[in-house]
Specification:
16 helices; alpha/beta; globular
Length: 485
């Protein structure tokens, strides 16, 4: 039976679900509170500069291919991809950086140059990570998180020890060089938790990194959003902008529509890709599946302090993606997950997309996007933002040996208060809920409401977890559940 479906939010998971549901013949309406589709994957355009406001890393290209393939399409039908070489660069000090190339052979060589004998260890390590990746993609991440039995397969039983060990333990068991340890622990930050709290099975992210590579869609990550919108609209999906949902309409504990700008819009199914916690505030308290105490106990992925900087010259000694790990990795992680405070010496990431893509900045100039991971819920003031900008720009200048401050044309920032006001993000988190052992698979908030009939959820607070590829998968999973109603 074909249904009328209202979707709250237009992020990757919502657009994914909209495509699958509309392909099946359902009437799908998407309601987005902001002025452009894409959820957190929006763009800032200013004076000829283009910045991806949200996600900036394109990993796991196979998941994107699989998504478009489900509709008889290819990624290349919607945007152009380039594999970056280097995939990224990591600074550990002045004149001290490691390039992660676009092939395993280049990466093995880089490791061997840093620590004799590490190339052989890395080959073995990546072999195991590749095996875990295949299991994850083929047997686990496309499961809807309904039952613990979803995790039980002949292959996962062989890997049981990986679920009760952690990424940090497995990495430091094989590698002693602190630089190589940090590089191997870095990918799990995309999962939103400390390496010491992330099950070792998630080392499959190292294969996603080294084996599958880092890519760039021409004109930025927003090209993916545009492609998905085109695909959705080809199936008849209607996307309504400037349409914040004020209430989920109910009859006898059943979702029957949404209220937008005071108007009741009826539908058979309501699906929310907006922040899970926020969505439940659109319901009476007795119909919320998860209490405030539940959310307060959960480990959330970091928030971020973001800077978007237009530079009046090209930048030297950096790569498209450049990580600055010249301060203690563990100390910064503790400020996010343990002490919940602003870091005294922050790690940070800088993205210079115009190095690879001339369309991202005017000729002879550079677009610079800087991210500092911070704890969600922190105090956020202009004074703090400016202080940390000075810290990171000074370090950027020192480590890359060039003067930049005199060439700053503009700087805009985005932090906790913005994540809350623009995305209704719980405590201003940037990536959702962390994938710790007790927040994995069936232990995450459910795709289907436990208290309200015909109400569903998708996105980074439910399965499979944070990140753009998991969001595409989440949309497919929830669409499958809705088809069974």
């Amino acid at each position: 039976m074909k249904k009328h479906i209202s979707i709250i939010g237009s992020g990757f998971s919502s657009l994914s679900a909209a495509c699958y549901l509309a392909q099946s013949g359902h009437r799908v309406q998407v309601y987005e509170k902001n002025t452009s589709p894409g959820g957190r994957a929006r763009q800032l355009k200013k004076d000829g500069f283009v910045f991806d406001i949200g996600p900036s890393w394109y990993w796991m290209p196979d998941v994107f291919e699989k998504f478009f393939g489900d509709f008889g399409k290819k990624v290349s039908d919607y945007y152009t991809l380039e594999r970056l070489d280097p995939g990224y660069q990591v600074y550990f000090g002045r004149k001290d950086s490691i390039l992660i190339g676009d092939s395993l052979e280049k990466i093995y060589s880089a490791f061997e140059a840093e620590e004799k004998g590490s190339a052989a260890k890395l080959k073995k390590f990546i072999g195991k990570a590749a095996d875990n990746y295949k299991i994850a993609i083929d047997e686990l991440v496309y499961r809807p998180g309904i039952s613990p039995l979803e995790l039980v397969t002949p292959d996962t039983l062989k890997k049981l020890g990986y679920f009760f060990s952690n990424v940090k333990r497995e990495v430091t068991r094989e590698f002693k060089n602190p630089k190589l340890v940090q590089i191997l622990q870095f990918p799990v930050l995309f999962l939103g938790a400390k390496p010491a709290d992330t099950p070792a099975f998630y080392n499959f992210m190292n294969f996603a990194d080294f084996g599958l590579g880092t890519w760039h869609p021409k004109d930025g990550m927003y090209s993916i959003v545009k492609g998905m919108v085109r695909l959705a609209e080809s199936f008849g999906v209607k996307i309504h902008l400037d349409s914040p949902v004020e209430e989920i309409l109910l009859e006898n504990k059943k979702a029957v529509g949404v209220k937008i700008n005071g108007q009741n819009i009826l539908s058979d199914i309501v699906l929310s890709g907006a922040d899970y916690h926020h969505t439940e505030t659109l319901l009476p308290k007795d119909l919320r599946a998860y209490s405030q105490a539940y959310w307060d106990k959960k480990t959330f992925a970091p928030s971020s302090l973001l800077f978007y900087v237009g530079l009046n010259k090209k930048v030297k000694n950096v790569s498209h993606h450049t990580l600055f790990f010249d301060v203690d990795f563990d100390t910064h992680a503790q400020t996010i997950y343990d002490t919940i405070q602003w870091p005294e010496e922050p790690l940070f990431y800088a993205n210079f997309p115009s190095i690879s893509d001339p369309n991202m900045a005017p000729e002879g100039k550079e677009a610079c996007f800087i991210l500092i991971p911070i704890a969600p819920g922190l105090e956020d003031t202009e004074e703090l933002r400016n202080r940390y900008f000075e810290i990171v720009i000074d370090r950027l200048e020192t480590l890359t040996e060039q003067r930049l401050k005199d060439d700053i044309l503009f700087m805009e920032s985005f932090c906790v208060n913005d994540f809350i006001s623009v995305y209704n993000s719980y405590k201003g988190n940037a990536y959702g809920m962390a994938n710790t052992l007790l927040q994995t698979a069936f232990l995450r908030p459910k795709l289907k409401s436990k208290k309200v009939k015909n109400l569903f959820f998708t996105g980074q607070l439910t399965v499979p977890g944070p990140g753009v590829p998991p969001a595409l998968i989440s949309g497919k999973l929830v669409a499958g559940l809705i088809e069974k109603v």
